[in-house]
Write a structure and sequence with these properties.
It is built from 13 helices and no strands. It has helices at 2-15, 17-43, 51-97, 100-108, 112-124, 126-175, 181-219, 225-235, 241-257, 261-288, 292-329, 337-340, 346-353. Helix 4 packs antiparallel against helix 5, helix 7 runs antiparallel to helix 10 (261-288) and helix 10 runs parallel beside helix 11 (292-329). The chain starts with a helix and ends with a helix.
């Protein structure tokens, strides 16, 4: 019966994997918004010490910032993006036929032999170029569905921000016996602290990407460099697809405007290597108190097991398992124990007394 129950739970989880992923992303978004909500909760001029009102104020502030950014940058960005999208089929067609080899050779002073060599290579990979164009068409057709799913994340995060502590306490009361409640609360608080540090590390990585994109795009004089840099920094939160979308947009605009897109592509690839194998392991490893090598292994294993979803969930899942394991084997040496001490966090303690 235990095996059957476990198999049934796994089957249900697999069937509802998209919904589960949506809730997980909502949790991450709630942690991203939580610092602003806590600040407004303690310093609001109108609704001090009211959690629900602070959540609404934080969302209202975010909507204002989005509105200002849209009013300032959206028209020009959309115009250039449409121009780049219109140029992509033309560029890919010239790549597949090898005609672009003459343009590249003339720009960089190549001789006829070098141009012919590049043209031969491009003609041999004509099918790959045509396949890339088909992949772009399929991706654009799926974009509306993805945007619809993502729009639910802020809505679900409202409930987590407002009632997160009560949800955790209810789960502890339901799934743990009375004698383990105190210990379960401590583990829950340690996981909460770990996820807070994880989101802070992700914000740090986004700021690093923002700085890199800003410097590169300003040096090569890209149009609307600041707007593109902000977009690239925000998309850093999305594993794989985020930086690939940013790179495709930047390279497309570079091709359309003839702005040293070859050098830009090389710098983007170098930055990706530095971000994945230097910045990410050290930022996450330092914040989560796990070794950088463990971070790299978790990301690679997550990619092998779950693809993009596995990459996104690998590090927080590995850190959560590490917290649970240490709290069970060495309670006094649990990760983040120096922050939690022996007392419960006030929010969970108040709910437990109630």
């Amino acid at each position: 019966m235990t095996i059957l129950l476990f198999a049934a739970v796994c089957a249900i989880a697999y069937s509802a994997r998209r919904v589960i992923l949506l809730f997980v992303l909502s949790v991450f978004f709630a942690y991203l918004m939580n610092p602003a909500v806590k600040f407004l909760q303690h310093h609001s001029l109108l609704f001090r010490d009211l959690r629900g009102a602070a959540v609404m104020e934080a969302y209202f502030g975010v909507l204002i910032l989005i509105g200002l950014a849209t009013y300032s940058f959206a028209p020009a960005v959309v115009r250039n993006t449409v121009k780049a999208v219109d140029q992509v089929p033309i560029v890919l067609d010239r790549v597949s036929t090898g005609e672009i080899a003459a343009d590249i050779g003339d720009k960089y002073g190549w001789n006829d032999e070098q141009k012919a060599r590049l043209r031969t290579v491009l003609v041999r990979h004509r099918e790959d170029c045509q396949g890339l164009l088909k992949w772009i068409d399929r991706s654009l057709s799926q974009a509306a569905q993805i945007v619809g799913w993502l729009a639910l994340i802020p809505v679900l995060a409202i409930f987590l921000l407002r009632d997160g502590n009560r949800i955790v306490e209810g789960a502890i009361q339901t799934f743990f016996p009375q004698k383990h409640h105190q210990r379960a609360r401590m583990v829950a608080y340690q996981i909460h602290a770990m996820l807070t540090n994880y989101i802070r590390a992700q914000v740090l990585l986004c700021l690093l990407s923002l700085a890199f994109y800003t410097i590169v795009l300003l040096i090569f004089r890209f149009p609307h460099a600041i707007a593109l840099s902000i977009l690239g920094g925000m998309l850093e939160f999305v594993p794989v697809i985020g930086w690939m979308s940013t790179a495709a947009l930047i390279i497309g605009i570079g091709m359309a405007n003839d702005l040293h897109w070859v050098w830009t592509t090389a710098l983007l690839l170098l930055w990706r290597v530095a971000q994945d194998y230097f910045n990410l392991p050290r930022a996450l490893g330092h914040r989560l108190e796990i070794h950088p090598l463990t971070v790299i292994f978790a990301v690679l294993a997550g990619a092998e097991v779950g693809g993009i979803i596995g990459i996104y969930l690998a590090v927080p899942l590995a850190a959560s398992l590490f917290v649970i394991w240490r709290s069970r084997t060495h309670p006094a040496e649990s990760p983040l124990a120096k922050d939690t001490g022996s007392e419960l966090p006030p929010s969970l303690a108040e709910i437990a007394r109630e």
